[in-house]
């Protein structure tokens, strides 16, 4: 590890390793993001230009409005009876939900028949959500478990990339778990631990791997996808899971840290930098399908937004605006949907209780 100023959480992690031995990457990631006292999401306001990264809802209202229109269409096409639970997992500052509700409010009958639920563990983010969404009646939850049964429309944007991953590296003695330990100078470092990957998991991954390759697994992500699949199969509704990642299981080390919109070492700035990894959409789809739900996609975020009328809505938004404003709208559209920006790296997976393909997931 290079020499940056140590943080309180970094010292806490070093002591824990010194006392109990190396920890898995998943344990390390969970501590950095969710430690009750020093965790990144427990104390930071990470979003926007002044934060560490910018999510799609923070780029443009177009993103949330189109998702709101998609949810409205699902409510109509599935003829969902109230109360319908409108759920967002990992809602950030509440920007996405605000844009969604602005569209839903155009259909008062739907607005009157939904109950809004935000799944959020961060006290600081809950405070921001309360302020931004004060016009609405909202219930907060730590997990999906406490949301009542009933038809559900769910959105999770950039949730799964922040859930802990286990990393396994293929060695000449098989797949071994990658860990975080201490080097001879007492600094954090990566190493290979004693944990191994089960033959069942290897077979499930169906990989052509070579020595040195890394495989990432996220049991926490798969468990949430299973919950969503079970809920939708039992109660009806649909979910959109939006994140950056890969459509099919593949090898690769995607563990990364971001601070002030710049990539930094994953072993520095503990509790002060965002840690993420690419999402395995095939694993999420399989987990939901195992509960009897149907997975549609994933498709690229660009394909999803363009299929819902991104260009048309952008034209409406820009009508009558100044040239400067119109130019900014064009730039926002490109950032959200262009192949060389968020358009293909970010993907959208739909989970529903029906095999009928919703727009714009049709082949």
Tell me the strand percentage band. 15-25%
Residue stretches low in confidence (pLDDT < 50, at least 5 long) are: none
Largest sheet geometry? 8 strands, mixed
Query: What is the arithmetic mean of pLDDT?
Result: 93
CATH architectural group of the domain at 45-119 and 133-163 and 223-248 and 268-352:
3-Layer(aba) Sandwich
CATH class of the domain at 45-119 and 133-163 and 223-248 and 268-352: Alpha Beta
Structural class: alpha/beta
Supply the number of helical segments: 15
CATH topology term of the domain at 45-119 and 133-163 and 223-248 and 268-352? Rossmann fold
Quickly describe the structure.
The chain is α/β, with parallel strands linked by helices.
Structure description:
InterPro entries: NDUFAF7 (IPR003788), NDUFAF7_sf (IPR038375), SAM-dependent_MTases_sf (IPR029063). One of its GO terms (biological process) is methylation. This is SAM-dependent methyltransferase, MidA family. The chain has 15 helices and 16 strands. The chain is of the alpha/beta class. It has a domain at 45-119 and 133-163 and 223-248 and 268-352: Rossmann fold, CATH 3.40.50.150. The strands form three sheets. Strands 2, 3, 4, 5, 10, 14, 15 and 16 form an eight-stranded mixed β-sheet that branches. Strand 11 and strand 12 (262-264) form a beta hairpin. It is globular. The mean pLDDT is 93.
């Amino acid at each position: 590890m290079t020499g940056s100023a140590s943080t309180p959480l970094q010292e806490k992690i070093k002591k824990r390793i010194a006392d109990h031995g190396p920890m898995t990457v998943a344990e390390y990631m969970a501590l950095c993001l969710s430690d009750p006292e020093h965790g990144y999401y427990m104390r930071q306001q990470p979003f926007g230009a002044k934060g560490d990264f910018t999510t799609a809802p923070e780029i443009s209202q177009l993103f949330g409005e189109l998702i709101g229109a998609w949810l409205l269409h699902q409510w109509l096409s599935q003829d969902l009876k109230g109360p319908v639970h409108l759920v967002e997992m990992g809602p950030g500052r509440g920007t996405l939900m605000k844009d969604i509700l602005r569209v839903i409010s155009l259909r008062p009958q739907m607005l009157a028949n939904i109950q809004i639920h935000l799944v959020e563990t961060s006290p600081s983010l809950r405070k921001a959500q309360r302020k931004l969404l004060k016009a609405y009646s909202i219930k907060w939850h730590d997990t999906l478990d406490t949301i009542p049964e009933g038809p559900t429309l769910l959105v999770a944007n950039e949730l799964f990339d922040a859930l802990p991953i286990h990393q396994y590296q293929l060695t000449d003695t098989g797949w071994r778990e990658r860990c975080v330990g201490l080097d001879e100078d007492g600094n954090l470092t990566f190493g290979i631990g004693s944990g191994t990957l089960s033959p069942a998991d290897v077979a499930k991954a169906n990989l052509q791997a070579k020595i040195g390759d890394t495989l990432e697994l996220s049991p926490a992500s798969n468990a949430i996808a299973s919950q969503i699949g079970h809920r939708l199969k039992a109660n009806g509704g649909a979910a959109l899971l939006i994140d950056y990642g890969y459509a099919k299981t593949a090898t690769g080390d995607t563990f990364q840290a971001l601070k002030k919109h710049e990539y930094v070492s994953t072993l520095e700035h503990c509790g002060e930098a965002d840690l993420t990894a690419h999402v395995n959409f095939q694993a999420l789809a399989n987990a939901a399908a195992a509960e009897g739900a149907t997975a549609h996609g994933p498709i690229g975020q660009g394909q999803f937004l363009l299929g819902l009328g991104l260009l048309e809505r952008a034209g409406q938004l820009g009508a009558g605006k100044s040239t400067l404003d119109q130019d900014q709208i064009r730039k926002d559209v490109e950032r959200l949907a262009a192949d060389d920006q968020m358009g293909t790296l970010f993907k959208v997976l739909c989970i529903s209780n029906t095999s009928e393909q919703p727009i714009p997931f049709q082949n």
